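Case study: AzlD domain-containing protein.
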Amino acid sequence: MNLWLWILIACALAYLTKLVGYFVPAKLLQSPRIMHIAGTMTIGLLASLTVVNALASGQGLVLDARIGALAAAAVALWLRAPFLVVVISGAAVAALLRLLGWG
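Here is what the predicted structure looks like once written out:
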């Protein structure tokens, strides 16, 4: 099988997964337990995507300025800074680290 066939199969499976969601009864979706699970899965997915984007480059792991930016953003979030301050602090730390020659 070639790559395009696998891509089409993955697209079809993604579409079917979304389509199956429309057939789930509303009563099940309004359950507090399901709402909690859905919220937790969203947080986990976002955290994993953030880590993968910060640590991966191609097929390998890298330690560069993105790590410092992620740490600075985490500290700003911990201090309950506004979102714009979180983004700017992460970008500033990444720029400073790159200026210093790290990554």
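For the exam, be able to explain this: The radius of gyration is 20 Å.
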